[in-house]
Amino acid sequence: MGGRYREENFRFSGPGKSTRSTTLRLRVLNGGPHGVLTAKGPAKFDGGVKSREETEIELRDVHATLDMLEQLGFRIGWTYPKRRSLWMLDGVAVTLDVLDFGWFVELEGPASALPGMARSLGLDPALALKDSYSVMAKKHQKAKRPTKAPPTRVLIQSVEPPKS
Predict the structure, then answer these.
(1) Which helix (H) or strand (E) holds 67?
(2) Is residue 151 part of a domain?
(3) Nearest to 65 by CA among 103, 31, 27, 119
């Protein structure tokens, strides 16, 4: 994958999801029908570098995959859109991700190269975010929901202009 593209990210709940050790995500690229199905293991953090095992499968038909996952008992927990621009720099994938809740730079490559690459881009690895986009998207969606407080009464009065 290279250049610029749009993604619609689907996060699932379902069989085998009783622990947070593995997450399942389906990315629909540029409105489909192609996409990527990703299983992600737990994240580990070391010196501002997040690492995890990921298994990805490229898909030719995301709609059929969504149907199959549903038949297997998975349900879409939530979704979030993302626009991504990708560059390769000295063997490291540098991405700029634009989401509804912010702009983020992501670096992927050999763990030993990432802190130096981050610093060369003016980024401090010690300030790397630990939350995933999925966690941030859930927080953002929750913050946008209307409160359950009772409605506030509003009094609207019609005022007649003074008669001359």
Answers:
(1) helix 62-71
(2) no
(3) 27
What one-letter code names the amino acid at 54? E
Domain that residue 33 falls in: 3-128
In this prediction the pTM is 0.74
Identity at 49, one-letter amino acid code: V
| Closest alpha carbon to 28 in 58, 52, 70, 73 | 58
Q: For residue 159, what pLDDT band results from cuts at 50, 70 and 90?
A: very low
Closest CA to 43 of 55, 52, 34: 52
Residue 142 lies in a domain: no
CB 94 within 8 Å of CB 35: no
How buried is residue 60: exposed, middle or buried, by Cβ count under 10 Å (0-12/13-18/19+)? exposed
Has residue 143 been placed in a domain? Answer: no
Check whether 158 has a pLDDT greater than 50: no
Q: What is the CATH number of the domain that holds 64?
A: 2.40.320.10
Domain count, the chain: 1
Helix (H) or strand (E) holding 25: strand 23-29
Two structure tokens written together for 14: 């379902």
Percentage helix, strand, coil, to 5, in the chain? 20, 40, 40
Let me know if residue 9 belongs to a domain. Answer: yes
